[in-house]
Amino acid sequence: MRAALDRTVAVPIDGRAESLNVAAAGAVLCFEAARQRRSARSNPPGSIPPIS
Fold this sequence. Notes:
Elements: H1 19-42
């Protein structure tokens, strides 16, 4: 499966990682990746991003 990936990400968690903590961290990463992709599509290089 790793051969199909572009990158890997490590989420440092102190102590023993509970599955819910890992799932929550993964959800946050997926949300942020989607947000950045949407932003990149609506604000191509050289454009001025909207003020939010």
